Each structure stands twice: as C-alpha cells, then as structure tokens.
Structure prediction request, 617 residues.
Amino acid sequence: MARSHKTIDSVTRMLDMTSVPAMLVDEDLQTLRETRMLDMTSVPAMLVDEDLQTLRDNSSDSGDSEYVSNDENNDDAVDDTDYEDLGDQTYECPFFGSMMWYGERIDKHRQTSRPKFGLCCMSGKVQLPKIRDAPPTLNNLVFGTDRRSKHFQENVRSYNMMFSFTSLGGKVQTSINNGSGPYTFLLHGHNYHLLGSLLPEEGTRPKFAQLYIFDTENEIHNRIDAVRSGNQSNNLDPAIVASLKDMIDGNNVLAQHYRAVRDHFSNDGHQGVKIRLVKSRSTDGRTYNLPNASEIAGLIYPLLFPYGEDGYRDDISLRESSFADNRKRRKVSMREFFAYLIHKGHGEHSLLLHSKKLFQQFCVDGFSMVESQRLNFIRFNQDQLRVDMYKGIKEKIFKGDTEGKSVGQRIIIPGSFTAGPMYMFNNFVDALQIYVCTIEFQKRGLPHAHILLWLHNDDKPKNPEEIDRIICAEIPEEENDRKMYQLVEKYMIHGPCGQANLKSPCMKDRVCTKRFPKPFVQRTESDADGFTVYRRREDGRTVTKKKTTLDNGFVVPYNRILLSKYRAHINIELCNQNKSIKYLFKYVNKGHDRVTAAFYETRNTDGGAEIRDEIKM
Prediction:
C-alpha cells in the first residue's frame, strides 16, 4: 500500500499544479523537472484524465455524459474530512482591491501572511478607471430574480446584439449547445468587427448602428427583427427593448451622437455626413474612459458598457512608479487590460461578471484579440526573438527539401506561444522525461486536464492486485462505505445511455460509442492492445441516475484518494504496452484539431525565396 500511496501523492501534486486560472494568463504551465531522470523503460504510465473526454474513441472508460449530480440524488452531505477545498476568495490585492485566492499569489513556493498578486493589476502597474454602476434599468434586469429579469438574463446576447454598433465577424457554433451540458460560446474562424454604412442599402433591412438612424418610428420592431433567428425572436420582450432603448439614449454618448446624425438626415438630407474613427485620445486612459461627442467607443457591448466607455487602447500608460525598473515597455498590454476588467474588487457588484452568456462572449472575443496581438508581435519582431538560430535546422524537417536549393524565409512562432509548433515539440520532449499535462476545453466547453505520468520501476504495479489498489471500476458498498458510494454515484458513473437515453452525447446509431456498459470480469487484465480491462464483478451493487438503475458496467475507473480529495470526475487509466503509450502521447499533446490538404512543389519555381509562415498554418 505504501507504493500505491506514493504514486497517488505524485498525481495530487500534478493536479494541484493545474489548479490555476486559465483565462487570459501569460504564464505557461511549467514542466516539473527532477534531478533524477527516469528511464524510458519505466512503464507503465499513469494517465489522469480529469475531464469528460475519452482515452480512445471506442475503448475508453470515460464518456461524454454529465459527470455532475443533475438528478434527484443530489446529496452533498458527504464527509469533508479528505476534501481539498480552496475556500473563498479571502485575500485582497493591496493595489487593485480585487479578491483573490491564496493559491493565486505571485510566489507560490513561499508561505506568507501578506501575499502579493499579479493577475489583476500586475502588482499595481496597471491602473484603469473604476467602472461606474449600471443605470437602474439595466441593473434591475441583470441582478433581478423575477420572471422578467430571468428572461433577460437568458437572452442577454440577443438584447446586446440588437443595440450593438458593430457585428461579430467570427462564426458562432450553436450546435454545441444541443446537449444537456452548460451553455458554451464557441467562435470559429477569423474574428473581426464590421462597421457598415450609416444607412442600409436599398431593399435591405437596417442592422447594428443603422438602427439608431433609419426608420426609428418602427425601431423596436426593427431591432427585434434584426436579431431574428428561427423563432427565437418571438420570445423577446418589446417592453424590455423599449426600456433599454430609453436607457441607452439617455446614457450612451455614442448613441446620442448617432441620434444627432438621424436628426441631421431628417432636417438636411443625407449629404455631407461621415463617420470618423478615433484611435488616439487626448485624455489619460488610466483615469478617464468616457468619450466626448466626436469619439468612437463602446461599439460592441453596449449592455456591458452602457455609458459608451472605451475598450482597449494601445496608448494607455503603465503607472509611473513602475518605470523604476527601467523596463522598455511602458504601455498596458491587451492581456493586462482584459485581466483587469474581469477581476472583481472588494464589495463590487460587477455588471460584467454577472452578464452570463454575454460575459462568455466577451471573454472569447477578448482572448481572440489578445492572441491576435501576440501573433502580430511575433510576426514583426522575428529578429528580437532570435529565430534565426533554428530556422535552418527546421527547414529540412518541414519542407522535405533534400537538395537544399530553396531555404527561403520562415516566420517562426517561438516556444513561449501556447499551442504553437515549438511549444508542442518542447512539451513532448519534457513528457518523455517526467510527465505531460495539457489543459484544454472539450467540444462542449468544459475545462479539463490530461496528465500523463511515467512511473519509476519501484512504483509500477506489477500484478492485478496492485492495480486494484490504485484503480477501481466498481461501485462501493453503500452500507459500509456510504461516503465513497455517494462520490462514485455523483461523479464516476457514465450515462445513462443506450435505450434509457438515446439522446446521450455518446450515442451514435443507437449504440454507445464508448462501449458502455462494460462487460463483467472477475480479474483485472490487459487486452491485446495494451489497455487494461479492470475488475468489474457482478456483485448486485447499483446506483440510480435519472431514474435509471446502473451497475458496475457503467463505472468510470477512479482512484479513491483522488476522488475523495478533489470531488470531481477524475478518470484514471493504466498503460502497460508501448502501443498504448504511443497513442497517449499523440492524444494528450495533439494540439488544436486541424486538417491540411495542399499540392505543392518542393522547388521554388520563380527562383525567389519562399516564405513559410507558421502563423498561417
């Protein structure tokens, strides 16, 4: 038992290291480095799959079901003795005043009663204007609990879109929300925001900024019609639209400017009026963010910034006190800007953080902007990034040019850019030494981590009995082990699927793609592909999920210690064959899904230097 506990201790350290905010954070997950390197023969490997994904499409014991309690058996009165609870945000940043967890401190290796934090304001280097409280109309809709407020909160993206001045250029995938999981905002393609003409073309309906100018006698109907999507627009409340219109007209400087254009068109015709986009400001972005009548601001999210506050500007200075370290950069980065916005100060009731689906859209939109800015920096600073030292070596690998006649020019993404080619390669090399950890969002938007560990020879389970002490795929006895029974019931049961639930995400052609229920077996063993078949005895123990009785055939393999400590779906798998380990490396470090199809010649036919751009790959 001492050996198995040593192995689980190493797993818990990995999970603790991944318990950091993943949104808009510059720091990459660092690789654990030990003074003693493990030999490549130190197999099997342990895969900790803290998510709803699968180890492989047809043979994994994980599934795409909801591994949370969403049925009538929602009993949270479980003993908390072993539960690892981070508690509440009880620490306040001395500079920004945001509430933080102790684990978010800058120096995580040092215990201190006065921790410092950098996620919110870069330890006081970033200073932005305090966000004003929302107008009463909007405040009541966002924070209210009555039927009207709940309707607004459920449809907040539609209400924001009908008052937005620009379009969202990316393609929003809606099919991801067809299942029973939480709402997910997923954006595809190149993201941009389109600002059209002041008036619609003849024969077309007005939309976005045009709604503030054209046919305002029928404005409420036009706004609802502009966001029509199937029959969803029938559910939008005209009374809410009218109240929001009055609120924006009375508070938003940009809306008032468009209304002035409407009046000009009404009195003097359509000639001589143009839109001017203002990039720079005459005011200090650290203390002032409301535009005057000739400035454009708050174009995209009028319900998040009802006064027309500025978005990100590249001329916002860092605080002067931060210049003492002689840093070259003296402007607030886009990442720092968004990180500042999404942190809540002590005692604040943040409109942004309570905007539900619209907040998701804002974060995705913001992250795409941050990533675009990083890629632009990489493109135009190749010399500073010292990419020349590995251009020649990688050229042959990527081009397959055996003659060496066309070296060309490369635009290379450095290893510090998450999910870039060099980043993936470096993490793969580190994985061969100790472990690999990848945090990503599955197809339905739920965050999860894949952790692959190499075990030292002394720690390898060498027989079925030792495997059973680490990994279990059976329902505990309810009478004598009620605590673990409740945890397995809540987090580690697949389904129900099959005939009991044909709409389960794992179902295809009326068959579970994860091959549940698994067959009963009396003894743990390995199949021909090196995947472990865990002990699942037909002992009569069952749980009830969504009024369906499920037995050991529906249990996802788990570890008792990890399940008790983290109270989450943590799928444990053992890999004891080279074939399965090769597959795991491919899966865990696969990066973004991509398909490339191209016909090309290895020689440059025009005689010029060929440019290979990793940013466009």
Q: What stands out?
A: The longest strand covers residues 447-454. The chain is about 30% helix and 10% strand. The CA atoms of residues 39 and 209 lie 63 Å apart.
